[in-house]
DNA sequence: GTTCCGCATGAATCGATAG
DNA sequence: ACTATCGATTCATGCGGAA
């Protein structure tokens, strides 16, 4: 079967199929951002056939090859993943995957930490609760789009008092050029109430809705969509799951393309997005 | 030169030398915990000869082979490290090192995240500030010693003091987040007495003292020493630096062995520990 | 004794310029 | 082309002195 490659892709749709196959019919350089939380190794065994950790990179790489092709040169690929414990150890399949993705042509730009403020309870004799996940940032080129202002956070109010009176420190440091001099441009700080965030994200996991307890909460895709796209850009989630990325995209006035292989999840996300549309783009909580 | 291998090792000393050479004269299975923050690749070029990222594992593995030998079967090895940016990318030498340490015989039990609450400032067009480091846990066997109760946080006290000392930044940021904030969790804590921590550690870097500005603050080694050792156990830091691990060990009534190759750092830690002893084991800040 | 406020400084990174 | 140096950017924390 030969499917003609379209120049203009359809957006705001959920596609039922394997992302590798589906994306082969997509043109190059048509996606602004890929945000996804793929099935973790050995997890969701029923739905995805249970990829064994040892085979994870082998399973993933043909798909990421398509991601690399359909992503725009200025685009970004965010991979939310965390290795599990196998026989008392953290498995190295994620590390292996990072190394192989670089060999595939991706730039490994950054590793964000998603700190899960309310992680699952539990107790083990030789291990504490796991309250973080990796959000790996990959790019096609060094000059990718990034809109830092969109994710600024409220700043501590120390700046106000500092600005009341230009401190001697700033002047001295400026003059003496000790180390990495501070206080060069005090004027930049005037009227500033917001600060840039760091590469550690503090989001709580939300599980209020039973039917689709999200793999990641709305906050996570929203944060990355705000940071790496503008209005009307196209966001792809090749492992859509229950549709969280699509909801985040709609909330932020971006276009989405969702792909989901598993029929149950496909139907869930379909329903969720239908319901969402019926409600007229009301803000949706997870 | 042949040095006779002693059965009983000297403790509470700082040794000037390369840890690989020094440890070759140590017997097997004599150390309860190794906590260290080695020189990062390409950092401290003057002191350590500037290990290039590409050669990092090669440089490290002969040393870790000795660590593996001198560590007790129930012991733990904590490696604090973080890769830097090279040509716009995170380098993979740490990932490579983890994989190779496993091949060397170590079990990679856990990866703790040290969230640095006050990270270095700065602004770049394509990157946020780096506010976390890896604390990698390696073991010789699955049945290692772990004293979880030692790092439990009293719920009531913790909540109170946390609330009292809650920084303005935390308040402002948490208030701005509906549902995922601090207030939600407080109610849960009030009903409990003690809580186990997670694998995300929140410590600030302290550098108020100029003369011996520690690579990591006292909090980090203290936390791991409490978690993985008992009174009088032996803690080794093969890259002692300014001596922070030794100070932490003394504070907690553990024995220490510190090794430092660089003469300047060796002298600094010597002075620091001498001064500490003269003061009669008073609690020492950084 | 508290509380408040000013101050120093930190495992940084990027891009331009110079050798 | 490739490396080395330099300037610019910028936020949270704990300490110490002052109120």
Q: Unreliable stretches of chain A, pLDDT < 50, 5 or more residues?
A: 176-181
Order of helices and strands of chain A: EHEHHEEEHEEEHHEEHEHEH
Question: Could you give the count of β-strands of chain A?
Answer: 12
- Indicate the CATH topology of chain A: Rossmann fold
What is the makeup of the main sheet of chain A?
8 strands, mixed
Radius of gyration of chain A: 21 Å
Mean pLDDT of chain A: 85
Percentage of residues in DSSP E strands of chain A: 15-25%
CATH class type of chain A:
Alpha Beta
Query: Ends of chain A: how far apart?
Result: 38 Å
Commentary on this structure:
- Two copies of one chain form a homodimer.
- By secondary structure, the first copy, chain A, is of the alpha/beta class.
- Chain A has a single domain (13-158, 196-279), classed as Vaccinia Virus protein VP39 (Rossmann fold).
- In chain A, 30% of the residues lie in helices and 21% in strands.
- Chain A has nine helices and twelve strands.
- In chain A, strands 1-12-11-2-3-7-6-10 form an eight-stranded mixed beta sheet. Chain A has a two-stranded antiparallel ribbon with strand order 4-5.
- In chain A, a hairpin with a 2-residue loop joins strand 4 (85-86) and strand 5 (89-90).
- In chain A, helix 7 (219-228) crosses helix 8.
- The two termini of chain A are 38 Å apart.
- Chains A and B meet through strand 5, helix 4, strand 6, strand 8 and strand 10 of A and strand 5, helix 4, strand 6 and helix 6 of B.
- Chain B binds a DNA duplex (19 and 19 nucleotides) through loops.
């Amino acid at each position: 079967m030969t499917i003609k490659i379209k120049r203009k892709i359809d957006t705001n749709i959920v596609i039922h199929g394997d992302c590798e196959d589906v994306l082969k019919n997509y043109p190059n350089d048509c996606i602004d951002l890929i945000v996804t939380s793929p099935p973790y190794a050995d997890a969701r065994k029923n739905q995805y056939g249970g990829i064994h950790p040892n085979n994870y990179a082998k399973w993933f790489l043909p798909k990421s090859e398509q991601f690399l092709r359909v992503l725009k040169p200025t685009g970004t690929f965010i991979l939310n993943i965390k290795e599990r414990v196998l026989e008392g150890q953290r498995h190295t399949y994620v590390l292996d995957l990072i190394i192989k993705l670089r060999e595939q042509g991706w730039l490994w730009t950054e590793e964000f930490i998603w700190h899960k403020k309310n992680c699952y309870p539990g107790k083990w004799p030789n291990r504490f609760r796991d309250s973080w996940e990796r959000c790996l940032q990959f790019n096609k080129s060094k000059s990718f789009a990034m809109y830092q202002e969109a994710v600024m956070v409220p700043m501590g109010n120390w700046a106000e008092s500092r600005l009341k009176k230009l401190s001697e420190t700033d002047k001295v440091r400026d003059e003496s050029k000790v180390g990495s001099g501070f206080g060069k441009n005090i004027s930049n700080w005037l009227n500033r109430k917001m600060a840039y965030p760091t590469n550690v994200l503090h989001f709580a996991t939300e599980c209020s809705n039973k039917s689709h307890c999200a793999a990641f909460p709305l906050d996570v895709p929203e944060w990355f969509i705000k940071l790496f796209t503008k209005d009307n850009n196209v966001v792809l989630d090749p492992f859509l799951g229950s549709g969280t990325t699509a909801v985040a995209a709609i909330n932020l006035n971006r276009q989405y393309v969702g792909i989901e292989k598993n029929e149950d999840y496909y139907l869930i996300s379909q329903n969720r997005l239908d319901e969402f549309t019926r409600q007229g783009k009301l803000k949706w909580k997870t």
